[in-house]
Input
Amino acid sequence: MAQGRRATVSMVLLGLGLALAIVVPAVVLSRRHTSCGPQAFAHAAVAADSKVCSDIGRAILQQHGSPVDAAIAALVCTGVVNPQSMGLGGGVIFTIYNATTGKVEVINARETVPTNYVPGLLDQCEQAQPLGTGAQWIGVPGELRGYAEAHRRHGRLPWAQLFQPTISLLRGDYHVPSILSQFLQSDFLRPSLSKTSLRQLFFNGTEPLRAQDPFPWPALAATLETVATEGAEAFYTGTLGQMLLEDIADQGSGLTPQDLASFQAEVVEALEMPLGDYTLYSPPPPAGGAILSLILNVLQGFNFSSESVARSEGSVNLYHHLVETLKFAGGQRWRLWDPRSHLDIQNVSQDLLGEALAQHIRRGRMAARWRPPAPSTRPSGQCCTHRARASSSTTSFWTYAGGAPRAPKSPPNPVSLRTPLVRRGKVGRLVPRGSPWASPSSHSGEWRHRRRGGLEGAGWK
Output
């Protein structure tokens, strides 16, 4: 599958990301020619975190949809199949490569902090954060405005067509997925869920739903039908948003109509990091692309090879260097501020991507002995957000690589994205009428201030 001068590969660097609780959507461009092996897909490949949603993404491509169309359709599906990982009440970051222009852009639609954010809320840093702490943690959802902006810029099929497969799934004979059942039965979630309004949805009497139990969710189906017909504005300035605000106000949220109406997705340039024959493009702060780039930049300087790690000593050395690099990078996460409220964040990104810091890490922390985790150099009072997301973050991923269906010579347009929810099960609040769950953006170390999964793929040959 020769693709001219630059072959493209889209990938989510899942292992490193999870090790740091920093997972970012990344697009990697190769400077070398590539060809498909016998098990490769010549036209396209889709990888969501469930087969049913990967199949939906593939079907959208086969209907001559764009990669972004497929991404949105698969994300809508994932909010139903894996609601513990994402939903309409969260946020999303797209990383999109345009093969026609050769440009990579990032659409940042992470949640923002509400105008009526409670002063001192993060002073609970040293206290436990149980699931049922409440609606005061709810941020301004960015998910649907992110979808709308991505579709406006790169969509091909009608908006409503992207929602129909999931609506049909909900209106059919839908059952509890096995992974959701595992979450509901877990020692972490089960006691907390039983004390929140989510019990109405996920419990059958006193017991959590089990795999393959009937799972009717008519309110969410109705919500998706409204969004499909009226667009994202139904949520931000219409009836769905009003219902959301009324429901969560009763539970203690300070979210306002102005918060929803004023939310805007941002289109920004991707960070760029050369990695041998490849170039890594990743989203800038407040996302974790700079940290991921730092890790990979440090590791490439050790010049590991298949021969060197084949020996026992070389393998041990590899893991030693990897662990030390991850620990050091983990201590830098506090630096990922929102650029809109910290104007010097661009300098921070360049520092994290620079070779000087990578060399410093290689020289200073790679003695052949174990070291304790790198102490964070963050200012005092900045601990809560990062500890919270490191302990129980959960995120959904989607990636696509390939050209337009039935047009093998068309340029490939990889799309990779992350749609995160920083605590499993969100904030323990069910929105009875509209059904998008709310995401606790105030818990997240990647929040945006108002101021101012394994993957299961689908493809075709």
